[in-house]
Design brief:
Low-confidence stretches of chain A: none
CATH superfamily of the domain at 1-88 in chain B: NADH-ubiquinone/plastoquinone oxidoreductase chain 6, subunit NuoJ
Number of helices of chain A: 12
Largest sheet of chain B: none
Largest sheet of chain A: 2 strands, antiparallel
Helix content of chain B: over 70%
Distance between the termini of chain B: 68 Å
Number of domains of chain A: 1
Distance between the termini of chain A: 44 Å
Shape of chain A: globular
Structural class of chain A: mainly alpha
Oligomer: heterodimer
Strand order of the largest sheet of chain A: 1-2
Low-confidence stretches of chain B: none
Largest interface: A-B, 25 and 20 residues
Number of strands of chain B: 0
Mean pLDDT of chain A: 84
Strand content of chain A: under 5%
Chain lengths: 351, 179
Amino acid sequence: MIHLLIYKAVICVAVFLLALGVAAYATLWERKFAAFLQDRKGPNRAGKWGLLQPLADGGKMFMKEEIIPNVSNRSLFILGPSLFMVTAVMTSAVIPWGKPLMFHGKLYDLQITDINIGVIYLLGVVSIGVYGIMIGGWASNNKFALLGAVRASSQMISYEIAMGIALIALIISSGGSLSLKDIIEGQDKGVCNFVWQPLGFLIFFICALAETNRAPFDLPECETELVGGYHTEYSSMKLGLFLFAEYINMFISSAIMAGFYFGGYNFPFAHELYEAFGWAEGSFAISLFGFGVYFIKIFLFICLFMWIRWTLPRFRYDQLMNLGWKTLLPLSLFNLALTVVVEYFRGTIHF
Amino acid sequence: MLGLTITQWLFGILSFLAIMFALMVVFTRNPVNSVLYLVLTFFCIAGHYILLNAQFLAVVHIVVYAGAIMVLFLFIIMLMNLNPDAEPRKHIVTRIIAGVIGGVLLFVMVGALKGAEQLQIVQGGPSQIGLVKNLGKVLFSEFLFPFEIASILLLAALVGAIMIGKRDTNTNDKDIINQ
């Protein structure tokens, strides 16, 4: 019992720190990446290559004066960013980060919890995430903030539907389990799910962009129309939490895409490689190597997110809604039907 | 601990919280706070589902009610900009009638629940019916007909909602402004 508690505590803290650390350095990488695309140098003063920039930014956020508008709903105003941050971190609980690790003769999963409804848990937490923005935007008692919050919530609800249907198709073709561990382990031998779900991946990727409020879907914080959108009235670290949670969301959705469609910590010829090195099942080296491979995939997805942000202009709001309801939703239903037919002939499902 | 198992403690705490939040929904003056308390009530009920070993139901409950329906509620209430000044004042007769009807409902409830303590609650082992696999099998074999009927009902409601929400093509925008 006490072993289990210590193990759970260690892995919770590790995943939490991983999410925060990656998000912090994603802010730096975003600025570096933007600078690269725009032929600039980017932040390079704080430490070597600007490596201390995230610390400087965080310190600045904490030092800034904190303003709570006196016409706002005080408790909800504080609740908004907190809730947004909490839901952003909560999604990391069901993601397996590597192969189980052998420690004192026992196998330990590198995952906080392997619940048998992991995929629906993810959808549930994502659907709760919208409350942070809505509460924050409404409690500010500012028309721009309210409009931003309304935009954000309608956008997230619209894209959740296509995302959910794309996930159903994925679950059918990956063998019918809702556990994230089963989905990723299922790609251990054979090909990754992307081969059977290319259209599903495309839909999921677009929806992930919309759910994380990243460009070209960042209409909730569209400066030209809404000043700052739902966080117009926020200052200091509360604003920081809203901005920071976006990077955590980006990290987690990259991890989900890399895991669901590109095999997570599995990679081609993994078993041959392990045999060549003579690494035993459950050894530290395998876990670390798998985690490294997973991390490279996540990093590439984060780069893709940033590349899109600094390349494409923002949508108009009607274009966004048309894309969600008139293109992605029928496309995801078509993908679902197609998957069922293909899987029937592959022999994965029977009637 | 007082001769109760952890499950019983959890049941007690969750029930207390659920009832407290449900009462707060009614008693708070601000409609936005009411909606948020209702969301908390849904979370407590989801906790009850987990105690019954029905994780799937618990999460779907949160996705559908807290994640979709209550967001739309919140949406409407935020856009309507309700404040105490605009609150319609009910006539005294209306209030008396509402009180009487509520009292009668309470009376009926008490009457219906009287004798409920004599019922034997069958307590088997932990039920496995709430797990996704079992639920799917039962839904698509034993309860296929009610399941299909429910889906047709939802489809009808969907079509109805679109019909109501659709702008009338005969009247153009100018007419709407003139009205």
